[in-house]
Amino acid sequence: MATVSQDPDIIKVQGELAKSLGWALNKKDEKERADRLRLMFSESKSSKILVILDDVWKTLDSEKKLGIPVGGRDNCCKILLTTRKKSVCESLGCDTQIPLSTLTPEEGFALLRKNARINVNDSTLNDVSKEVAGECNGLPLAIEAVGSALRGKGFNEWNLALHNLKVAKLYAIEGIDEENLDVYGCLKFSYDELNDDNSKLCFLLCSLFPEDYEINLEDLVGYAVGLTWYQAESIENARSLLCGTIEGLKAASLLLDTDWQNGQWKKAWSDTEESV
C-alpha cells in the first residue's frame, strides 16, 4: 500500500510499495526505481499481489512512473485505488467503481452524539445537536471534530457553535472551493475551540508540513523549544508538555496517528488547514 496524495512524491510512493512487499530499493533515480520494481513484480513468487494506492488525485501511469506492471500475461497484480474524483477512475479504466456516499442524517446525528457524549436522556440538546450535525453534511471527520469540541458543553454553547458553523459558510475563502466549504467551516470551528495558544500554534505548524508527511515528535520538540512555546526548564519537560498538546489535537480529530510507538503523526485535514 502507498499513499499517492495531491502532489505525489514518486520516490516515496515507490519506496512505500517496496517496503510493504518486503523488497529493498537502492536506486535513487525515479526511472531506475520503476524499472527495478517492475522486475521484482515480474520475478515475484507470489501468484497474486494486491496493490493499494490511496488518495489518488490525477491520472498516473502506474507502470511507467511507479513500476507496477499492468496487463500482459505475466501480470500478477491487481490495483485498488481510492480517489475523490470519478474522472480519475474513468481515465484509468477501472473495472469496478464503488462510490462511497456521505453519512445519512440519522448516521451523522448518531456519530455526533457519540463523539460529544450526549446523554440519550438529555432532551435539551436534541434539536440543536441535530442542526449542528446537519451543518457537517454527513462528513465523518468533520462530525467527529465538532462533536469532540462540544463535549461537555451546554445548550448556549451548542447554539453558538451552530451559529458559527453557519457563518463560516457565508464567506468565500481564497483557495477553498465550494465542495470543501463545509469541511473548512468545521475545521475552523474545531480550531477556534482549542483551549490554549500552544495547541493552536502546534496545529498551524503541522499544517505547514506536506500532505501525508509523517511528522516526527523530535522535529516538533525542536520547533517548540526554538519558538519558546512553553516556559520549560528542560528539553525533556518541553517534550512532555508537547506530548500533552499532541494528545489534545488527536482527541480533537486534528491529528492522526501513523506510528505512535516512534512518535509520528500526520495531518487529519489535508485540503483546508492552510486557510484557517
TrEMBL record:
Gene3D superfamilies: Helical domain of apoptotic protease-activating factors, P-loop containing nucleotide triphosphate hydrolases, Winged helix-like DNA-binding domain superfamily/Winged helix DNA-binding domain. Residues 3-116 form the NB-ARC domain. One of its GO terms (molecular function) is ATP binding. GO terms for biological process: defense response. The keyword Ribonucleoprotein does not apply. The keyword Metal-binding does not apply. It comes from the Eukaryota. Keywords: ATP-binding, Leucine-rich repeat, Nucleotide-binding, Plant defense, Repeat. This is NB-ARC domain-containing protein. It comes from Citrus x changshan-huyou.
